[in-house]
Design goal:
With about 60 residues, this protein is mainly α. The protein contains two helices and no strands. About 80% of the residues lie in helices and about 0% in strands. The radius of gyration is 28 Å and the shape is rod-shaped. Keywords: Membrane, Transmembrane, Transmembrane helix.
Length: about 60
């Protein structure tokens, strides 16, 4: 491989490395994700817990 070709590849490779996506998540994103999950999953878990308590009470009385 000659030197001119090698020097032509260096800027291209550096450009490709610079444009790689970086995934960073801060505390605010975690908070937003937590609130969304709580709103989506919370009511179902609340209903399940109430029904489970009723079931346990029913099993205890049986």
């Amino acid at each position: 491989m000659n030197y001119k070709f090698r020097f032509a590849l260096i800027p291209i490779l550096l450009g490709l490395l610079a444009c790689r996506p970086v995934w960073t998540i801060g505390w605010t994103e975690f908070l937003i994700l937590g609130v969304i999950l709580l709103l989506l999953i919370g009511p179902s878990l609340w209903r399940f817990s109430r029904r489970y308590k009723k079931f346990k009470k029913y099993e205890k009385e049986k």
